[in-house]
Amino acid sequence: MRLSASRTLALVILAAVLVCAAAAGAGAWRFHHKNPQAPVVRLDEYVVMGWVGWDSSWYMRIARDGYQYVPGEQSSVAFFPLYPLAIRAVEQLGPDVYQAGVLVTLLCGPLALLLFARWARIRVEDETTALHAGLLLALYPFTFFLYGVMYSDALFLLLVVGAFLLLEKGHLVPAVLLGAVATAARPVAPAVVLGLLARRLEWKRERGERWSVLDFLPVLSALGFVLYVLYLGERFDAPFAFVDAQVGWGQTPGWESWLKLYWFKAVFSPESNAETVLRLCLHALLTLGALALLWPTFRRLGWGYGVFCAVLVGIPALSTKDFMGMGRYLISAFPLFLTLALLLRDHPRVRHGLLAAGAVGLVLFSAAFGLDHYVS
Predict the structure, then answer these.
(1) Global pTM value
(2) CA separation for the pair 203, 150 (Å, rounded)
(3) Local structure of residue 210 (DSSP, 8 states)
(4) I need a surface site. Which of 103, 149, 257, 288 has the fewest CB within 10 A?
(5) Alpha carbon distance 199, 217 (integer Å)
(6) Residues 246, 74: contact at Cβ < 8 Å?
(7) Radius of gyration of the chain (CA)
(8) Which helix (H) or strand (E) holds 316?
(9) 3-class SS string, 19-73
(10) pLDDT tens digits, residue range 83-98?
(11) Displacement of CA 218 from its chain's centroid (Å)
(12) Distance of CA 194 to CAs 217, 265, 308, Å?
């Protein structure tokens, strides 16, 4: 019996979660045992250890101790509050802070992928293409961040996909509410606000209906962002402290970052090792690929999703000094994966090749993250 598209995608996601968890756990075991004095750790703890690294420590500190801010230095205010709040809520049920973070991601990530497939089905009215889009996103190498990593990407994606899905169904107020919650999770409020607003106006025009004042409600989806800015102003007298904190990571705004001079210096420096060069080149190529998909997204999915992706990709692409992190940020630009599926309708070999390469990348990146390599 042929499996339905939704069941097929669910099985692929389940397999990806299990395989990636095993790879990350194995990487954590290897990293842990590099130290001959390493204490004995239960086998199940390696899975959590495999999904906790790098920025996870910042979320842990926020969940436990709240925010701190030192001007011009790395500070926890750089990370928006929704994910740490979710961790704190789950922690009250019994898990420790790291287990709670992994559980939040594990609950949100797979659900976000399933909602994405439902959204894609509504947009293109083609179950097969929607399945292909779901597979392209589920097997995108950096999607392992949705399968348990203690990062906020899974929660943000769930909320923003849910918001656009509700918008497509005509549920404006719930869509705006989800959008407002989403803007408290990541510093990309302009993308969410403009995307929801443009899509709502476009949605009304497609139905031959006139715009009304209510159609501009998506502007209120900036509320989560605004509340965080107000909190920072009240607590630290620095409403945009999250921008200033980026200086601590070497992300100084200016023409050197805009022209990616840091990237060129790092890639062509004789002191850079092969891993660093490969990592920087991969993120740069993925960024260029995403930018290349923007115009097809405008044409095939409409101005609402085109604006959303253009702003969502454009903000980090412009502000990052060396493209690092772009591979992960592109997960949130979910309409691009549907655009890619549409473009590959008549190119099954290319699609199969991308899926195979993505599956291999998922496993390798999961293991690398568990080994404490800087992946994204």
Answers:
(1) 0.94
(2) 36
(3) P
(4) 288
(5) 12
(6) no
(7) 20
(8) helix 303-319
(9) HHHHHHHHHHHHHHCCCCCCCCCCCCHHHHHHCCCCCHHHHHHHHHHCCCCCCCC
(10) 999 999 999 998 899 9
(11) 21
(12) 11, 35, 6
